[in-house]
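#help-structures
NK: newbie question, is this the right format to request a structure? protein is DUF969 domain-containing protein
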Amino acid sequence: MDSTLINLWPLLGVAVIIVGFVLRFNPFVVVVVTALVTAALAGFPFQKVLAELGTGFVKTRNLPLILVLPLAVIGLLERHGLRQHAQNWIGHIKSATTGRLLIVYLGARQLTAAIGLTSLGGHPQMVRPLLAPMAEGATETRYGKLPEALRYRLRAFSAATDNVGLFFGEDIFVAFGAIVLMTTFLHEAGIDVEPIHVAVWGIPTAICAFLIHAYRLRRLDQYIAKEMANAPAPASTTREGGAA
């Protein structure tokens, strides 16, 4: 057999991880099974696989603390009324709407991500405890109690705004991993490109992303006004024990 042939069987690990996520299995189990399947198809000895897993665990044993401690702090803040304070605070700003609030956050998220401060936002530390309650509070101040479907829509737009701001903002940061990867790949192909040039060309894309999503957020305000205008009036409270 020709020793130069490339073994493509380990690529079946990609299919394993795709099937696992499509079927909504536990992500940890999917990743571990994928690693074992890929290692087996690549001909790795089982002892070597265990050694690599152990080495990876030792190198990242402090990672759970980095992830868990901030979540614990956020949980304590929520327990002591962080969400309610955020809703009450935004409720005092009469000119605030959900669309305007999210547009301001979108701009701030893009600008901070563009200078490498990607950890200032995020779903667990910003969207869930602060941004989504503020979006709901701004709408409730104008229209009163919200239908559940609309409430979940506001939460979805809050999460999407954070995603858009981060994704297109970090492409401008010259030390972003994707920019380093692209420049390295191009250098290996004989194309000399500086990271700063790739980052600069990310600016037009970031501007377009901001304008498009800001337009969607402006339309969100119109959608909210329409939905609340067509919402049924709250049912009158019946007397206990029937009619007098």
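mod (FA): yep, format's fine, and the tokens are attached above. The CA atoms of residues 172 and 199 lie 4 Å apart.
NK: thank you!
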